[in-house]
Fold:
Amino acid sequence: MKTSQTPQIYVGTYAKYNNGSIFGEWVDLEIYDTKDSFFEYCKELHSDEEDPEFMFQDYENIPKKLISECSVSDKLFDYVEAIKDMEDETIEALGLFIGDKDINNDTDFEELMQEFNDEYQGYYDGSEGAELEFTYQYIEEHGILNEIPQHLHNYFDYEAYAHDLFIEDFVDYDGHVFRRR
Structure:
């Protein structure tokens, strides 16, 4: 499924802004492969200025650590490439994950994505809460009750087990469950 979370930036310039204009354009980042090609378009967009100083006045569907008012991270286009075939919930989880990491120009984005894939357990939005819903699945997948006679399964305290799992091994961010490192 194609994502509805297309990364976009509203690109203006400081000169226009300082002269009372917010003229610019929403730029869809999926069109550009590299930071250089993005900046080439920005230069074309603001070709009425000799040396435009770009101002990223707004943005959508981009983790905050990858953009500021005056710059975009070198890793932004790695992120854009990574999310092209992701479901919306996974993109949201990746944004949360990136928000919790120190990212700089030396960050190996492939390693970061591998770490994300290792730590991300999924999205749980059930009526019983993400932690309990995850715990039911975790117990089933790991066969935790397999050695206990079936007639005793009703006595198992899933809520207490969920509490223990989320103290040390897992963390829940708005229904997105990650393994702790």
Remarks:
- The beta strands are 8-13, 25-28, 54-60, 120-123, 170-173, 176-179.
- The mean pLDDT is 93.
- DSSP finds seven helices and six strands in the chain.
